[in-house]
């Protein structure tokens, strides 16, 4: 998010004039100056709390949630600091020590919540639990100051600041310094507008705390500059968080959605890698099974048994090729039908070795199909090719087989398998009740939700029409022509 240069300059001039006005007010009435600074901070913190609570369901940033919910504690403790401040007259018999104790408590709350928010920015924040912890800690501070008087003294009349107060200011500054470092490391994950103003607020808070570590007079010049810096720090805090919620809620949602998108893409990538690895392993296992079948077939002398082994190997190979195409495909849900079936037919041609001149014509539409369609087409072609090579050309020295898959206008595919062999023998073998191959063809057609037609005309022609979307095929008649 870019900051407009003209607006930025005007804003700086306004803040400079405001600093001068605050100095004039301080010279006129320090108590009025102090009240203005504290009320401004209280309003900022309380508003931050309300907006965070209202928007907590759409805010995914743990940092914003933790700081926003904890802001109610800063606001309440700063309010007590204001009301107990020397000269306010709200509480009777209150010395300078008590408002200083509330100041230190509020700054500890603020610096620690910033640091925890940055340390656990990737953790889920339970809003109710954070609010409950804040309430318990604030209650403990109130009891330790008003009831049990166990909170360490921070200011002693005549002596000034105590060692505890001075050391605490340095510790708080250290917490802010760590927050600056952690925020710098996360700068690429945070909106630039929020980052610039948030870092500025942290730097101003550090300078302010250092000034508060060595003042001697609560109405002195050092105290004045410390409060002015607190005012500007709260202003930057307001710009980084409150204005982000009020002026740019869409940007906040978009930033959160982009973060989720990156996480989902990474998760999907991991799953794709895992699924591809599974397909690769399945393919290797099928290849191993096929190799074992080949080894076993070398010991078989019976021709009929050898044929059964060969058919089994062909079916396994069709599955193996499918898994190979899946893990090599960029889309795990679809594969290229042309590439897959062309390789399958080439394998079948080399595998089923017959001493005849069989011309192969292959024309496969270049379409992406689901794995379900691909494997059923492969099984159908494997069985029809095997049947044709065994029965259609027994009394011929040459022949021709055509395999065509074309895409129809009605979002259907048409698979045509045709040979010019001995039709009656091939047809009888298909209709043989003991023929497992034809049973697999019928099962494949059913899985494709398609319709099958057998056409006898200068050979046997098998036509199967089926939908690309896998739904029931309409307006396709199931018929056999002779």
Automatic annotation (TrEMBL):
Alphabetical UniProt keywords: ATP-binding, Kinase, Membrane, Nucleotide-binding, Phosphoprotein, Transferase, Transmembrane, Transmembrane helix
Catalytic activity entry: ATP + protein L-histidine = ADP + protein N-phospho-L-histidine
Lipid metabolism recorded as keyword: no
Coiled-coil segments: none
Pfam family, one: HisKA_2
Superkingdom field: Archaea
Domain Signal transduction histidine kinase subgroup 2 dimerisation and phosphoacceptor, chain residue ranges per copy: 278-351
Protein's name according to its UniProt entry: histidine kinase
Organism: Candidatus Lokiarchaeum ossiferum
Upper taxonomic lineage: Archaea, Promethearchaeati, Promethearchaeota, Promethearchaeia, Promethearchaeales
């Amino acid at each position: 998010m870019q900051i407009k240069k003209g607006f930025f300059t005007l804003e700086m001039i306004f803040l400079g004039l405001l600093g001068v006005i605050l100095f004039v007010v301080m010279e006129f009435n320090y108590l009025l100056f102090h009240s203005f600074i504290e009320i401004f901070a209280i309003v900022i913190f309380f508003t931050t709390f309300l907006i965070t609570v209202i928007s907590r369901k759409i805010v995914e940033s743990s940092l914003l949630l933790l700081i926003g919910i904890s802001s109610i504690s800063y606001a309440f403790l700063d309010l007590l600091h204001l009301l107990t401040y020397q000269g306010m007259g709200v509480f009777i018999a209150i010395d300078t020590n008590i408002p200083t104790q509330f100041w230190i408590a509020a700054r500890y709350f603020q610096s620690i919540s910033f640091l925890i928010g940055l340390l656990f920015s990737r953790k889920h924040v339970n809003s109710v639990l954070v609010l409950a912890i804040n309430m318990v800690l604030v209650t403990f501070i109130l009891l330790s100051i008003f009831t049990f008087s166990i909170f360490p003294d921070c200011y002693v009349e005549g002596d000034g600041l105590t060692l505890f107060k001075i050391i605490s200011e340095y510790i708080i500054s250290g917490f802010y310094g760590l927050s600056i470092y952690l925020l710098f490391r996360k700068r690429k994950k945070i909106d630039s507008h929020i980052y610039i103003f948030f870092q500025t607020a942290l730097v101003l808070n550090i300078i302010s705390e250092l000034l508060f570590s060595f003042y001697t007079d609560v109405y002195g010049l050092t105290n004045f500059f410390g409060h002015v810096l607190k005012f500007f720090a709260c202003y930057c805090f307001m710009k980084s968080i409150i204005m982000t919620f009020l002026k740019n809620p869409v940007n906040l949602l978009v930033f959160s959605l982009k973060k989720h998108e990156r996480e989902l893409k990474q998760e999907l990538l991991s799953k794709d890698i895992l699924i591809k690895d599974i397909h690769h392993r399945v393919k290797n296992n099928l290849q191993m099974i096929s190799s074992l079948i080949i080894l076993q077939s070398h010991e078989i002398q019976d021709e009929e048994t050898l044929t059964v082994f060969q058919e089994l190997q062909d079916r396994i190979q069709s599955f193996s090729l499918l898994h190979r195409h899946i893990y090599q495909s960029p889309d795990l849900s679809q594969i290229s039908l042309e590439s897959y079936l062309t390789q399958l037919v080439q394998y079948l041609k080399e595998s089923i070795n017959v001493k005849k001149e069989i011309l192969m014509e292959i024309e496969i539409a270049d379409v992406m199909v689901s794995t379900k369609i691909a494997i059923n087409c492969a099984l159908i072609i494997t069985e029809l090719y095997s049947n044709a090579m065994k029965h259609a050309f027994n009394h011929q020295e040459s022949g021709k087989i055509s395999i065509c898959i074309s895409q129809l206008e009605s979002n259907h595919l048409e698979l045509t398998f045709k040979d010019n062999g001995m039709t009656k023998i091939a047809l009888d073998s298909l209709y043989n009740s003991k023929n497992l191959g034809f049973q697999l063809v019928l099962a494949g057609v059913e899985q494709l939700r398609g319709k099958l037609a057998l056409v006898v005309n200068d050979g046997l022609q098998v036509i199967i029409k089926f939908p690309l979307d896998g739904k029931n095929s309409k307006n396709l008649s199931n018929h056999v022509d002779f």
